[in-house]
Amino acid sequence: MNSGRTKALTAGLLAMMAPLAAFAQSADPKRWQLNMPRGVTPSSINAYDAHMQVLWLCVVIGVIVFAAMFYAMFKFRKSKGAVADTSFTHSTKLETIWTIIPVILLLIMAFPATDKLIKMYDYRKSEMTVKITGFQWLWQYDYLDNGISITSRLAQKDDEMRQSGKSVPKDFEHYLLNVDNELILPVDTKIRFVITADDVIHAWWVPALGWKQDAVPGIINEAWTQIDTPGVYRGQCAELCGKDHGFMPIVVRAVSKEDYAKWVASKTAPAAEPAPAAPAPAPTTPAAAAPAAPVAVVK
Length: 299
Ligand SMILES: [Cu+2]
Hints:
This protein is of the alpha+beta class.
């Protein structure tokens, strides 16, 4: 009977933990999500690990403190004849213990936390740089290594939906979190961001990357990321920046290095193409060559 109860309890606990495991794997927040997301970068995973270490430490402290409290309340209750010890005012031994234990616990937390913080602010050895500029109410992304510059604003369908006054259909995915031009980034690449703003203070925030950075006019802030998993990661402006503050979402699409190279080529190629196209109209008359020429022109 006891083993049956244990099995049921274990099954119940596992069933409760299953959704937690699912949350940990997904970058999108879920309804009623209780824990913070794990994210997809070394910084976000470090933050998540630090959070979990401290959380479990708090759980252990909570269990010990509440157990001692309830034990004292039930064991030494008045109905059992307990009498308050009014002569007890202080104990140097106890005070020393309850000062030293928290200091040790703080040190246990401080060392790994400091190590993680130092890593978070280490911008060295970055492989590419993207300049992010906040505007009322859109983002501009300048890929400083290859001259690509794109602006990214709320997708038209989201904008039309919000201004229509209608209620949002349930199948409308990522309402107000879609953009016209996504920030395309390669995975497994250390990317440095320089972040500023053109008009007022904005803040660039994608939770799955594990940080939030203010975009301040006249000041250049720094941040870095290295995305481990390809995917789409969404965020928002996180600094109240005017009437459309809620309508300047961020979408990062992390792709493989090969796909990123293709995307860069597609963005940089069109400007170079028109020039070689000009000398094309010099057709030769041989019948055999004729079919090839129009195809080349169409291209
Ligand atoms: Cu903003």
